[in-house]
Amino acid sequence: MPAIKVLPHAEYCPEGALISAPAGTSICEALLDNGIKIEHACDMSCACTTCHVIVREGFASLGEAEEEEEDLLDRAWGLEPQSRLSCQAILAAQDVTIEIPKYTINHAKEDH
Ligand code: FES
Hints:
By secondary structure, this protein is of the alpha+beta class. It has one domain (3-99): Beta-grasp domain (Ubiquitin-like (UB roll)). 19% of the residues lie in helices and 19% in strands. It is built from 3 helices and 5 strands; from the N terminus they run ββαβαββα. It has helices at residues 27-33, 67-73, 105-111; strands at residues 3-6, 17-20, 52-57, 83-85, 96-99. The chain is globular, with a radius of gyration of 13 Å. The N and C termini lie far apart (40 Å). It binds FE2/S2 (inorganic) cluster.
């Protein structure tokens, strides 16, 4: 079962976390199943960007992003080349390391 190393995030997981989930699970589902309450405003249907994560290790092992996801990602706060929508990023056999960005698009709208 692939492991997901979650880098510390002040709100969702201040200490960081090491979790695992079966291959075929989306990163978003894996986080939620393990009590890391990442936002997922559209209920994981690839229609928002609140589940944005940056994949620091293991990016290439995830299934490729569809065009729809790429379009949405363009609107994400703190976009990086290794950004993914976690509800669309499906785990393969390899371990990954992810970072949850400090803000989501919702926060960005409210605070900045
Ligand atoms: S939860 Fe909305 S795109 Fe992932």
